[in-house]
């Protein structure tokens, strides 16, 4: 596609500019509502809100580095099935866009019914840290500082989440439209890029001034990516070292209490109910006793490592690395680190990238007649 | 409802003078490999006693969690064996199995579970000798590797 | 023969000629030939032939009589019957070769007749003596050829053979032994 | 009362099994017999089949009502509740009429009682005799007591009397007394010898002293009859024909009156003069023949010699007292006795010498090669040369050995050898990791199946198999033990190559027993010795009610055999229903099983004991103890030899007494028990899905030397070890017991978790079929169904019935296709069960096997809604359109079909022509349509013969690539050559060139024989245009079936399910399925009709015990399970927003379950809980490992 437009920022307030952008969207007859992060009245960050009335856009804060949950799951609820509830424009972080695409592949939502608008993402704070950052309480100056720094560094004593610091997909090129922040002066103006025919259509209808690509965004992005890739490498190395055998892995997971919050927060863990919560894992008392006798002792609750390994098998190829698992963990198990590390290798193994392309089938749903012959000693 | 006899399984009798005897769980398909295993048995081919066959209808139904469960439960290795490509009774189950094994090979070895402990093979119905040889080679290899880590850990 | 040569024309006329030319009987012998080449390969004399036996059959079936009669292939047939024994179609190939010899001798041009003479004298000698008596055979051959220079051409070879005891001069131990065999073959070949 | 069957199927090879299944599945009882002691025919010896190069035979098993039959590898054997299998049994007589035949079966004893034999193999261990193994095509040796096919189930040893040395060691070794040589009966087997020969009377009793036979010499017939009349229980009478002829005859007649079943053997003096050539005195022969006709069993030449007479009589005695004669009543008979492979050693013309067969270990038949490549073969699948064991790396195949050879009275093509050789070449490549060089010498490469040309092309272009159109004439021993092959290459050059092995692609011969069988069944054989069938009634023999299946009527590959078998089954089924009316309205009651879903599990564990293999290897008490403490186990019983009848009875009583709701049997050979579990299920009213049999046999010896000698050696070695001594070693007994305990615990765990709830409700069947397409195939299929009493709707797009076959005027075989088609159309239109909708097309279809709803719109715009249980797609094909080579431009260019029509109409006058040229494979077998069109070669031959008949002198030149006259049509190829047509081979890279001068074709081409160009100027140029399918994409979409890249229907499996689609309940036949001759279309149509009847004959269809189910409360509708289902059994129901399973389509593979992350889809019998409990049980017996430090990695 490649059309670029400019979202003018007046009064040095990009938030207001984006609110105005949302208002324009709502004004378009085709859009029924806008899904966007909105500041919580009590402070502490944002939560997604489905806004139908332009009046209600005043608290919408798409730039706030708060990421209390992955809105992809919310968007699936708004777009599911053939039922035409109208088109929803969703302002999402890149990882939310990719999660949503994964979910659509699994029939949980429909790309048909959503206009995906992504923003260049400098990262977000963990839920615990989110409230400490003034920018998440409506302080524009703090926010501008944060945006200018590209999320790098410490703000009000906190850093963006590690998931974000190691994220190599900070632009939502998979969305219909992307709002460009990188390399731009947020007080002056933002870019709007169309990535799909539908995005192109909307861009035309929104009647925004045309912009040219002066390369500043790419340059900023490149720098950011270099840092993040380095951070990612380091995280992978650390995690790999910390989980290099079963003993270390169980230490790594030792704080886990089988609450399954990680999977509840995971955008791509789409099961209505996790198998680990079903009767499949309702073991009989004699089974526990028999295991205990067999091994001398077993950890209670059982199936902790089993759960995490199975979840890795089930969703690591769909993992978008948003970090909500760690965010949700009550006991600070570094779940994100583990999953992201493994996901990198499983996705690579199948030449797959979660959320990259809606047309790309999930690796475990397809096969080729001639592949992976090395598994069977070269015979296929 | 009648009362279920809940006496747990007893520990096996110790084998006199036993060295490390690996426990291998083999998921075999009903149509090819199970037949080959039966042929190996009825032809009295010498087979390693370390392998426990779990007959599945097709390798395509081997859920990754079964393999994980076995390895966490103290199996020193897991064998998945089915029909040759193109030969699957259910058309293409073995291709799907291959992808799942590939997936696990990307995950489990990262946690110190040696990739050699997970083996996928194609053994056709008439290949009793091939089955026996596969099993024996595999058992020998695992003996060499030693017991799996999980055996010592109180986790499941 | 190769692609640069002009193609052999199998005009209907060429084919038709065979019907008039009395070749039909020979064609009938080899009609179901499938050109497998077993005859050629099993022929001990094939190395010396200008046309391979299977090419002879093919040309015959095409009705290209002249091409066949001009070749020396069938004259070189020593009637060892190997091809007949081996032909997977069970064709009487030796008989076909013999028929070609007869046809060539009867209808052919001067060159062919001369080729025929060697053959005829050879067979007559064998029939008479029960084996080949080289001296007698060559004498009658030279006589039949009416060419005074011919014996001279063969003299060096003759002397050489004589020196090694390879020339049989006479003696009638086997005389007439093969008479019944020749008679039988004649009667067999006369059968349709 | 005689046992009654719907049909008798003779021959339990693949054709017989298919025919038997096709009948049994419609509810008819079938007796399946085979002269061999094993099932599977030749396929028992072949591991790999083209074009998949694997097996896949199991795909033939029933898809619906699966639990009525076995669910395991079909090469092991088969069980179906409606099929009785009788092995080692031959048909010896067939009396009566269709609908009520009485068949006499001779069941030859194997001398091993299958109800006692536990297949322990001790007999074979002690047998000193050796004979070539039939299973390994003579490449290895077997004992005289042996397992005919090592992998068959049930598998009992048999005694081969001819090779038995009568040492009786096996009898002594058999621990279960299963071997019976009738020692007891010998002393009661009185033999009367009626002879005037004093010497003989004295000798015989002496000779037979050791055999214990009481001999009664009688000098006259009178004396002998006196003995009989006196009440002597006589088993055999030897009647000397040196008695006056009248006396001999009277004695025979009278003796048979007294003892109708008495075996009488004639002793006939060998007249020395009779050996002389030319002695025409056959008076004695006539007398013998007359007496045999009157009931004498056989004749034995005199004088007798002790060395021969004693074993002969012993054998006769054993046969007389052990063989059985059975008589059964059957409605129809299917003969599927298959074929034998040509044995080059049998060739009287000495081609064995020429081919070096038997004289060189590197010259093998294709069957021998197949065994060499088999893991169950003599070299375990390593391709090594018999004799010197050298690896085979350069291998050549020689085609047409014993086929297409008029000298061997084989003026036919065996149809399968070309493809088998390609397969073997690929197999050789695969087995050697691509190292083997493979060369195929051929005359015509007959890749005449729809997909076969591509298979050949792939072999040539991708795998690098060399194809040489040549017939090597000289085969000699070569250097290094190789085989030297001389041949003329395509360019006419003499070449010589050495190979490690030369494989002779041997063709088919009628079964050895053909003469006997033909006599017994009262059928005619054709000039090649195969069963005679008619071209347009190819499933029928010369006798009404007797059908030919498999390769019995004409050599065929597996696909062809199975289609022929299906057609034969259709014929038999129709015959039975015609004579007996529609099947009884009260279908056999399905067994009723009690609902045990609300009961706590009560497991009965039965352990097989007293087995010779188990007893000395296992600690039974310990095993029993371990079983008793397993959860859910209420009873553990020991059953002595569960595989024997007595053992099974004990088990049944125990089970009845303890009323379990789960049964676990620990025994050997679990497959053997499958049918018995059904039986037990009926007794206990317990679903066999809640029972299991565990193989504890393999574990009893696995990995250890369990022979007595081995045990002794172990004890000895243990006692010398430090700390050893008596009792220090149990020779692995504890380990074995542990292993068995573990196996049983695993099975118990699985049973404990088994879902006892009842299966999904059965689908009621709409008893009507829809046939789409009213051509030859469609009409034949419709008739096949309608004649069996079911309604058929036949939908045809055109305004008249008939299709492409209406264009035919003659057939090669001399039939009148016009008349045939007219009759067929009339029959269809008059049939009260068939409703014909012409000028109509299908516009909508929904539903599944048993219940389809389809809307058909007629030309007038009327829509019919049809409810039908089965669908047959026969949308046909058409002559391909030809635009090159001047067709449609020049009048002198015709297609074969046009020529046929003009010859028939007389618009082409053969006598006025001066030359005709034909070009075969005009566009078939090329890039755009890479398949053989099947009909063009036959069409060309038909026209050649017609032209030559009308104008014998007319030159006809045929440019061809490979002439594809498979089967008996080969004879017309021979005839065409004999008539004078000249065949000139061309290659795709060097096609004949056609130009036109004065509107006449001028053809230039390479003559490979002459090695030069030829030029032909014929009056007519005839092109073989080939066939292509009608556009079926819409129909395929409507019915949810697939198409091949050429637009033909894609069947479920080209070999094993040739007329089925993956979507069950929809079948295909005719040209829409692939190029086919009339004969083939007819056969396919009949086979498809029978497949449809299989569904229609059920009142309702139920699914198998292993079937997928969805737990809707857990299902997230992600749809991952939908594409992974290979049968398309799953779909998203948009109305209900839920995933649904078509439980009839579902075959229980469990792909969905592995794809579903939260087990919302489950497979009955394989729930997660069950499988994980099995894993637990498998690992429970394992000792805690603390001894060794873990290794890194």
Could you explain how this protein is built, in words?
The complex is a heterotetramer of chains A (380), B (156), C (192) and D (1193). Chain A has 380 residues and is α/β, with parallel strands linked by helices. Chain A folds into two domains: 227 residues, no CATH class; 143 residues, no CATH class. Chain A is built from 14 helices and seven strands. In chain A, strands 1-7-6-5-4-2-3 form a seven-stranded mixed β-sheet. Chain A is globular and about 70 Å long. In chain A, 51% of the residues are buried. The model of chain A has no long low-confidence stretch (mean pLDDT 93). Chain B has one domain: Rossmann fold (3-Layer(aba) Sandwich), CATH 3.40.50. Chain B is 33% helix and 15% strand. In chain B, helix 1 links the parallel strand 1 and strand 2. The longest helix of chain B is centred in the C-terminal third of the chain and has 18 residues. With 192 residues, chain C is mainly α. Chain C contains eleven helices and one strand; from the N terminus they run E-H-H-H-H-H-H-H-H-H-H-H. Chain C is 60% helix and 2% strand. In chain C, helix 2 packs antiparallel against helix 7, helix 7 packs across helix 8 and helix 8 runs antiparallel to helix 9. By secondary structure, chain D is an alpha/beta fold. The longest helix of chain D has 23 residues. The C terminus of chain D is likely disordered. Chains in contact: A-B, A-D, B-D, C-D. The interface between B and D is large, with 84 and 99 residues.
Strand order of the largest sheet of chain B: 2-1-3-4
Reading the helices and strands of chain A in chain order gives EHEEHEHEHHHEEHHHHHHHH
Low-confidence stretches of chain B: 1-17
User: What pattern of helices and strands is seen along the backbone of chain B?
Assistant: EHEHEHEH
User: What share of the residues of chain B lie within helices?
Assistant: 25-40%
Topology:
The complex is a heterotetramer of chains A (380), B (156), C (192) and D (1193).
Chain A: E1 4-8, H1 14-27, E2 31-39, E3 46-51, H2 72-79, E4 87-92, H3 94-105, E5 114-119, H4 127-130, H5 140-148, H6 162-165, E6 177-180, E7 189-194, H7 197-206, H8 216-242, H9 246-252, H10 261-265, H11 285-295, H12 304-315, H13 324-328, H14 335-349
Parallel strand pairs in A: 2-4, 4-5, 5-6
Antiparallel strand pairs in A: 1-7, 2-3, 6-7
Helix pairs in contact in A: 2-3, 8-14
Chain C: E1 8-10, H1 12-20, H2 24-30, H3 38-42, H4 53-62, H5 65-70, H6 82-86, H7 93-107, H8 110-129, H9 134-145, H10 150-163, H11 179-190
Chain D: E1 3-10, H1 14-24, E2 30-34, E3 83-87, E4 89-97, E5 100-107, H2 122-126, E6 131-132, E7 141-142, E8 145-146, E9 158-159, H3 169-173, H4 183-186, E10 190-194, H5 198-207, E11 215-218, H6 221-229, E12 234-240, H7 245-258, E13 263-269, H8 283-293, E14 298-302, H9 306-322, E15 324-335, E16 340-341, H10 351-355, E17 363-365, H11 366-372, E18 394-401, H12 417-431, E19 437-442, H13 452-461, E20 466-469, E21 474-477, E22 483-488, E23 494-499, E24 501-506, E25 508-509, H14 514-521, E26 546-548, H15 558-580, E27 603-609, H16 612-615, H17 620-628, E28 633-640, H18 645-658, E29 662-667, H19 674-684, E30 691-695, H20 698-701, H21 708-720, H22 733-752, E31 763-764, E32 768-772, H23 776-786, E33 791-795, H24 817-830, E34 834-837, E35 840-848, E36 851-858, E37 863-868, E38 870-873, E39 877-879, E40 893-895, H25 896-905, E41 916-919, H26 936-950, E42 956-960, H27 970-978, E43 982-985, E44 993-997, E45 1000-1007, E46 1012-1016, E47 1020-1023, E48 1027-1029, H28 1033-1039, E49 1042-1043, E50 1049-1050, E51 1066-1068, H29 1078-1096, ...
Helix pairs in contact in D: 1-15, 6-7, 12-13, 15-29, 17-22, 22-32, 23-24, 23-29, 25-26, 26-27
